């Protein structure tokens, strides 16, 4: 007999623990169901034990918004990674052009005149301008050519981005074998 009472008690508590769903349709009619509401109806779950109401529609919208935000973050991160990879590749291509120029003109350029900047280990003056690295490599080559064109520089020994550079105006230092130093701004180089 005790067993039957315990069994009924367990079954009753399981049935009482089941949620009830309050469904409101477009016309404003309220229906209580044991199953979740159909789509298009407001869906509120009521816990019979505690009396707590949960708005399932709101929770679903919040989950959906959270998923969309996470997807947007993921998309932005992937886009940033693609941009960084593209910048690194462009910088690598410009460095290769610099090295090709140096190898084909050993009388005009020292072997270490325009050493390539490694995007992973940039010198401190260049770190602030990492997003402009391909342009910096291109301008270093142009600065060396401009110094040679002045006829005051017999051979270029080094071309580096100078610490005087700002976001608006990059400054390059060109050291020549004659001892002459050229400080060329981005605007002067582009007027070549």
UniProtKB/TrEMBL annotation:
Task: Using the UniProt annotation, give all residue ranges assigned to the region (Disordered).
Answer: 58-96
Indicate whether GTP-binding appears among the record's keywords: no
Q: Which N-terminal stretch is annotated as signal sequence?
A: 1-18
Keywords carried by this UniProt record: Signal
Do you know which Pfam families this protein is assigned to? DUF4124
In the UniProt record, does the keyword tRNA-binding occur? no
Per the record, where are the segments of Basic and acidic residues compositional bias?
A: 58-73, 79-95
Domain named DUF4124: residues: 11-50
Name of the protein this chain belongs to? DUF4124 domain-containing protein
Q: Which organism is it from?
A: Methylomicrobium album BG8
